[in-house]
Model the fold of this input.
Amino acid sequence: QHVKGESKVPGQAERVATLTVDALDDTLALGVRPVLAAVPDRTLPEYLRGPAAGVELMRPVTAENMAPLGAAQPDLIVGRQGALFNKLSLIAPTVITEAGSGQWKLNLRLAGEALGRTNDAEGLLTDYDRRVAGVRDAVEGRPAVALVRGTGDGLRYTERDSFAGTILADAGVRQV
Done:
């Protein structure tokens, strides 16, 4: 079960293609090396350069550039391109994840289920909960922070419903 319905996936996929950086991150965290990863500008974020070294990269998937995806012969596709679900499903079983980086826990669970690694996903989330509980206990009061990130246009405030925003909330830190 996923955003676009239901897909029949292999018990343990061996040739996974990821369509987003977060799907690549989840797949690697679950111990699976994708055969192909779509990432902006075919450039990995710094923190993934080591773990994803050697993974074939392509630009984000569009209706016009699916040839590299088909050539990789994946047995599972994971990502957020819901508008392309029908075309992607012709290449391989496809699992569409939730939009928005604030949905990272749900998306990790979806990836875990799709990859046949549900217990591994739950283990990662249990470890996260344990660690964040330790931080929450160590934080005095309920501090407030403004979280910004650099973009090509300067700095932008990070939304509360973002990856970083959900971590701050879990740790008991308020965003202003």
DSSP finds six helices and nine strands in the chain. The CA atoms of residues 36 and 72 lie 7 Å apart. Helices lie at 21-29, 67-71, 85-91, 104-114, 118-138, 163-170. The first strand starts at residue 16 and ends at 18.
